Amino acid sequence: MNLDPIKQGLLDSYAQHGGINHLDGVNLPAQDSIQRLASDYMHLMFPGFFEETALTKKDVPAHVDRLLARLLDRLNSEIEKSLRFARDPDPSTRARTLAGDALGQLPALRQIIQTDVNAAYRGDPAARSMEEIILAYPCVLSISVQRFANVLYRLGVPLLPRMLTEYGHERTGTDIHPGASIGTHFFIDHGTGVVIGETARIGHFVKLYQGVTLGAKSFETDPAGDPIKGIKRHPDIGDYVTIYPGANVLGGKTVIGANSVIGSNVWLMKSIPANSVVYYQGDAISVVRSRRTKAGSPELGQDDQANWDI
């Protein structure tokens, strides 16, 4: 087969259709390097779980030395590339500072990630051990990587945070933007199809099921019709909220009050007060006020019931 006509067609396309070429530009972050960075990070967060051979306490200091050195090297390199893309005036110096700042937050991240694993164990009666959760539950990877990406996002690193969370998205089917703010004890059961937007704020002890979207209701546009960046577009979820499969909670002004339960397939674009249960009653959504006998356990009260359509 003669490939020359195809080659020429592609070369002509490169010349004529700009925007999806990156030729003669700065070196961009490498996807393979980002994936190895994410892998090394997970090995640091969960020592002894992902190694091919058993890791002893005696081996741990040298193991951490190796992983930290690799992480620092990759972070320096990939952050510098990201900053060059963003036209930072001193990308080399700033990359070293940002890489050090990010790594300095790893011990605190581990404490938070442990609460996520505990939440998964307490939130799933099928879980037989903490080891099973760490080795086999997709939420551990997607949430843990997002927490590190969020550190980089808040430090102002371009490109790299989103590439990290896309690694978790690709592996688990859970799409969490690095900008999302997430409290402790966060559990996503099953994980497939969950989408959490950039400006979402999630409280402590929140549990989501598969197919949940915390998304935008609409996009404000500028006079040219382009989306306005940097505005609040995604909802706030209070502490001890449970959202069941297929629910969509949308809008930057939508607030889900603490201790509430959102039923399956609910489409919600308005705020609800604390201690509410939201579900479909026929073709309409109903909100029932409830009281909680203990954290995470709703009980409808005869004197508390108030139904209304939203």
Q: Can you walk through the features of this model?
A:
The protein is α/β, with parallel strands linked by helices and 310 residues long. It folds into two domains: 28-173, serine acetyltransferase, domain 1 (Orthogonal Bundle), CATH 1.10.3130.10; 193-219 and 231-310, 3 Solenoid (UDP N-Acetylglucosamine Acyltransferase, domain 1). Helix content is 39%, strand content 15%. The chain has eight helices and 17 strands. The protein has helices spanning 4-16, 31-45, 60-85, 91-103, 106-123, 130-136, 138-154, 160-172, and strands at 175-176, 181-182, 187-188, 195-196, 201-202, 207-208, 213-215, 236-237, 242-243, 248-250, 255-256, 261-262, 267-268, 276-281, 284-289, 291-294, 297-299. The protein has a six-stranded mixed β-sheet. It is globular, with a radius of gyration of 23 Å. The protein starts with a helix and ends in an 11-residue tail after the last strand. Mean pLDDT is 91; it is low at 296-310.
End-to-end Cα distance: 63 Å
Mean pLDDT, nearest integer? 91
Tell how many strands the DSSP assignment holds: 17
Q: How do the helices and strands follow one another from N- to C-terminus?
A: HHHHHHHHEEEEEEEEEEEEEEEEE
Q: How large is the count of helical segments?
A: 8
**Low-confidence runs of at least 5 consecutive residues:** 296-310
Spatially, the strands of the biggest sheet line up as 3-6-9-12-14-15
CATH class of the largest domain: Mainly Alpha
The CATH homologous superfamily name of the largest domain equals serine acetyltransferase, domain 1
